[in-house]
Design brief:
By secondary structure, the chain is α/β, with parallel strands linked by helices. It is built from 13 helices and 16 strands. Strands 1-4-16-14-13-12-10-11 form an eight-stranded mixed sheet, sandwiched between helices.
Length: 361
């Protein structure tokens, strides 16, 4: 898809341990129409770089959603562990894993994955990977304080760490090589601006995991740019019936709410059911994509979605750890590597159906 991008304003200069960090003010991308998406262009570029060294990985790249065909690179075998805050049934993380596993096949990497929604359990999982002597770690910082000590311990032991998806503002302080994901407040501001364009007056921001700093940042971003009112609604994202009941009850009692913003793809369908059962006319927008969200866009059950390209987050994290070990590479220049946000609508459905169908968007 061809995109119109408002370029970020950058202030250049080296990052040091004693001086100020460089700053970047990112802006959201609003997608338009056809052409290859930025995610797969970036993936192709990474694959080309790997394919030009040693025995390459082109064969593996020919099967983006699975399969073990093709030859990996000829660099020594390494082991990478990923720990995420994924809750039960969250399809977003299936896409992240697809990207990570594809890069692992190409890069001759043994890839390990574990998840738990509780911060303390995540820290235990990270420690278990350290005990297994992994060569690199990928972690999410949705509950940053719970992970601080073990991430710093990994870095002190010489294990490179990359953070993805959540808590990017804590990544450098904990010693990670870089953070890969989207700026959640920027993404939230993009949603607020989208609601303004659509003439909405009052929005419910549905938080499906309490204490997740990235979800809180998204709602804060919406509140920063939306000219109407925003109210947060906390639900248990791992309990679909209870979540639907909570959203439905709020829409029944608050007829002024004309917009619902869900913060994860699985919540979008739940919000649609809740709205219909409540007899509300509220319109729905969501963060993140999956095949269900694309279907909702196609049927006009929701107005828009914010894509942060989870496949790319998994792929680039594994690939960068391999590149760091094989060639000393680091991406970002001291700043996060942004994979979003991009606002997609029903006009983008034809291409999105192809990509979500194979598990890469």
């Amino acid at each position: 898809m061809r995109s119109t991008v408002r370029k970020p304003r950058t202030i250049t200069g080296p990052r040091t341990t004693t001086g100020p960090r460089t700053t970047i003010e990112p802006r959201a991308v609003r997608t338009r129409r056809t052409g290859p998406p930025a995610a797969l262009v970036a993936v192709a570029a990474l694959a080309l770089a790997a394919g030009c060294s040693g025995s390459g990985g082109k064969g593996a790249e020919d099967k983006p959603s699975g399969g073990t065909g093709g030859r990996p690179v000829d660099t020594p075998r390494m082991t990478i562990g990923m720990v995420s805050h994924a809750g039960e049934g969250d399809t977003f993380w299936d896409i992240v894993r697809n990207g990570a596993e594809q890069a692992a096949r190409k890069d001759n990497v043994k890839f390990l994955y574990a998840n738990d929604k509780e911060g303390g359990k995540q820290a235990e999982l990270v420690q278990s990977y350290l005990d297994q002597k992994v060569d690199g770690l990928i972690v999410t910082l949705a509950k940053p304080q719970a992970l601080a000590a073990v991430v710093r311990k990994a870095v002190a032991q010489g294990v490179p760490v990359i953070t993805i998806n959540s808590g990017g503002q804590f990544s450098a302080a904990y010693g990670a090589l870089t953070h890969i994901g989207q700026d959640e407040k920027v993404a939230g501001r993009a949603v607020g601006e989208e609601l303004n364009r659509r003439g909405r007056k009052k929005a419910l921001c549905v938080v499906h995991e309490q204490g997740n700093v990235s979800l809180e940042d998204r709602c804060a971003g919406v509140r920063a740019t939306f000219s109407g009112r925003v109210e947060n609604l906390n639900v248990d994202g791992t309990n679909a019936p209870a979540s639907q009941s909570s959203v439905q009850a709020r829409l029944q009692s608050d007829r002024e709410a004309d917009a619902v913003v869900t913060l994860g793809a699985p919540m979008a369908a739940i919000a649609v059911k809740a709205r219909d059962e409540a007899g509300s006319k509220a319109r729905i927008g969501t963060f993140d994509l999956n095949p269900s969200v694309v279907g909702l866009l196609k049927r006009k059950d929701i107005d828009f979605a914010v894509d942060q390209q989870p496949y790319l987050q998994g792929y680039e994290a594994v690939d960068l750890l391999w590149l760091h070990r094989a060639n000393g590479n680091v991406l970002g220049g001291g700043q996060p590597v942004l994979t979003g946000p991009a606002v997609v609508t029903g006009k983008d459905v034809p291409k999105l159906e192809e990509y979500t169908g194979r598990g890469t968007r």
